[in-house]
Amino acid sequence: MLPRMTRIIPALLACAAVLLVSACGGGTPASTSSSSSATTTSTTPSVDAAAEEKAIRQVFADYREAARAKDGPAAAELLSQGVLDYYAEARDLALTGSEQQLGDRDVALVLVVYMLRAEFDAAELRGMSGKHLVSAAVERGLAGENSTDVVDLGTVVVDGDTATAEMISPGKSLVVELLFDKEDGSWRFDFRPLIAPVGEALENVAEQRGMTVDQFIDAMLGSLYGAERVPELKKPLAG
User: So what's the pLDDT on residue 201?
Assistant: First the structure.
């Protein structure tokens, strides 16, 4: 499990996919194992729905290719503003968030904050917008360029400027819907629905190993960056 967690944002999709594929092994079979034949529903006319579906699937495919190619700017352009805001929040917490402040936050976000502290210094983070942070993470090879291959899009539902897409692994539904937002006339990928399942999966793995979540996170960080660095990663970069 630990090697699967060696990626930071924007790889929450990858983490969730790996964890959910394991957790949902007995899930309901998807209607199809090929996204190209999945159905689409929409509140708009059918011709428009087909065009919107094609655009949404293309965004997902383009994001995956950008991550594989470590093309940071291209990957960042394909993510929704909500995702970029999430990155910006993680950046701010990495700089100034105390351990007490992080104690009330989602487990997945806490892990991202600690890993940002390990991967970037304070000066770098201060100068990065959410989009720049995404781009830098992808360029540094932190995006798990192959791990998104374990999932695909199933049924797509379009409703105006928002859309949901079922996340599937070969032959199985993962009971998670990915979000897409149309911004300035173009569809953007929004992975935030995956954040809660990632946290839940981490909690389950920690329990299976007879560890608290904090102990498990410390073990993950120690495996990645060395046990001697763990205490410093619990402290804000900005002091």
Answer: 79
Distance CA 161, CA 159 (A): 6
Half-sphere exposure (CA, 13 Å, Cβ side) for 49?
15
Question: What pLDDT score does 90 carry?
Answer: 92
Using CA atoms, how far apart are residues 158 and 231, in angstroms rounded to an integer? 46
For residue 30, the 8-state DSSP code is P
pLDDT band at 121 (very low <50, low <70, confident <90, very high): very high
142-164 pLDDT tens trace: 655 555 566 789 999 999 999 99
Helix or strand holding residue 42 (H, E)? strand 40-42
Residue 16: helix, strand or coil by DSSP? Answer: helix
Say how far apart CA 56 and CA 162 lie, in whole Å.
10
83-115 burial, b if ≥16 CB within 10 A, otherwise e? bbebbbbbbbbbbebeeeebeebebbbbbbbbb
Assess contact for 146 and 49: CB atoms under 8 A: no
Residue 62: pLDDT band (50, 70, 90) is very high
**Cα dist. 39→34, 36, 66, 72 in Å?**
11, 9, 26, 31
